[in-house]
Amino acid sequence: MTVPPGNLNTMEKPQNMTSNECFPSRSTVLQGQPFGGIPTVLFLNIFLWVVIILVYSFLRKAAWDYGRLALLIHNDSLTSLIYGEQSEKTSPSDISLEMEHKDKGFYSWFFNTVTMKNEDLISKCGDDARIYIMFQYHLIIFMLILCIPSLGIILPINYTGTVLDWNSHFGRTTIVNVSIESKVLWLHSCFSFLYFLLNLVFMAHHCLGFVPKRSYKVTRTLMITYVPTDIQDPEIIIKHFHEAYPGCVVTRVHFCYDVRMLIELDDQRRHAMRGRLYYTAKAKKSGKVMIKTHPCSRLCFCKCWTCFKEVDAEQYYSELEEQLTDEFNAELNRVRLKRLDLIFVTFQDARMTKHIREDYKYIHCGVPPQQSSVSTIVKSYRWRVALAPHPKDIIWKHLSVRRFHWWARFIAINTFLFFLFFFLTTPAIIINTIDMYNVTRPIEKLQSPVITQFFPSLMLWAFTVILPLIVYFSAFLEAHWTRSSQNLIIVNKCYIFLVFMVIILPSMGLTSLDVFFRWLFDIYYLEQASIRFQCVFLPDNGAFFVNYVITAALLGTGMELLRLGSLFLYSTRLFFSRSEPERVHIRKSQAIDFQYGREYAWMMNVFSVVIAYSITCPIIVPFGLLYLCMKHVTDRYNMYYSYAPTKLNEQIHMTAVYQAIFAPLLGLFWMLFFSVLRLGTLHTITFFSLSTLIFSMVIAFLSTLLGKLQGVSDYEVWENRRRR
Question: Which positions fall inside the CSC1/OSCA1-like cytosolic domain (predicted)?
């Protein structure tokens, strides 16, 4: 992406940096092409997207119903046996059966996804899907409106500038082509502020859809931790609340147990039962069926080895079921002895719940709660009280990971991630290594736009998928108690990491957080502080991000459909399966919950890229609209056909709203940096940019605060109406 020195403003030569100074790692691979290589990258992505769609249309049914796993999920639930929870995965509804009946043709899945009614999607996937797709609708309409001023006003103004030569095709579409003496720069600053206000209005309108379906909290149930494990009688808990809070009526007390082993045994037992029923029915029709029980039996056709000999399928699964049932019953009897220091207490009225929560609100500050005659027995002064999550939101097997073990695991995992990403934050690190060993010399000699433009945008997209996956999987190792908290930690960590990796560091020519902190605090790097921000405004820098958005819109969404990692795992499990019932069990248990945290983080990352460069590089806006439309269609299909429904609270969706409000602030930051570097600190546009940035930050903070308060108020009003 080299930029000829003649293309830069001659009045600012002492300050400006060249592309090679900003991006030394792009010396061999990231080289400039006419119009930033955007037409070439767009054509390649369209071609690859079509290929992916063709391959996926074949694989979704040919590869063992891989693309329709959500229609085959089980409706079993062990937690209903222990805690009285309803089934987490329901049997296919009439809508699912109707959609499955329509899913007959080679491309019918694509047209079914586009024409699917929102009511059908919400009926199967739950209220979280409603909030998610409505959020996407708001972003799409917002981006569609942004296309009008970006392409109709800002782009013509940039292109008619006189700073760059006419042969600098893409550079002329950026703000760099506007003379610093031109008054039209006021329009850029004003539009960046208007984008923030318009985005704020859209997010406020979206938040109205959270009420009254805003929470899955069980409002009459409290989750209480640090309860002594030697208490087995619920009457003691009931007595404490009756005495400490007169008029309080407790309707139910649930003790929690360590059910990790029980859940695993129950799954194996149900699998063996299905195998027995399958081969019993088959034996009645066609006689005794023989199978090989070794996992690697498909790799060896020899019958002489003992482990590969065939056995009676019905007898094998009958004996296996009997053995697992005995183990299950024995573990069920033992699980009552594995009490956790966690209980759920349900009250008759939500007002009682609120009163008790208020009493325990300041216990961390040493304010004791109300006491009873059994307070010393139940140790109520040590309790921690919170509203209980919805049973479908709780990850029951993680409840046994407590106190020191949970915090030790959490700190160890995140310390490792910090040191990993401290030195390995952007793809530029890898490119530097490649250049160091001259791996790309053959690529450099090719001088092909296919390689020099598509390869870097593909690499950036790949890293924005692969590296955050480490963050994503780390959340599972942290063993969070609820799916909501798990998704919340995913969306926050992934988004912060992606913003640094994709927007901030590459824009300023920095390669990692290590270099970023040295640039901030090292006296030698501080000498470059005033010129590093000029890397943001190099003419071809915006082309790199346009290519990234194009790659994310087409190749990225196509790979989200294909899901190669899941396909590899799915096919491997099927290959090592021992019988047809086991393969049916794998198909029905392969679908996982839709990961709202991960999807929100990736979507908001691209949205932030588009908004950050919407003023300085307006041509990126229509490609941002393309990404949101493609992402919406892809997510509709995945939620309905590929992932199991899940239940979350509203906090994960509100976090995405806060991130969307933050995105236009990046555009305001970029305009402030441009004004300081090109116009000077005393210019009126600089003062205006600084004022609008501060004002916008105050508005964003107050909106976030008022949103939280309004949410609590709406929630209480809804509870009062429900009681009446």
Answer: 220-398
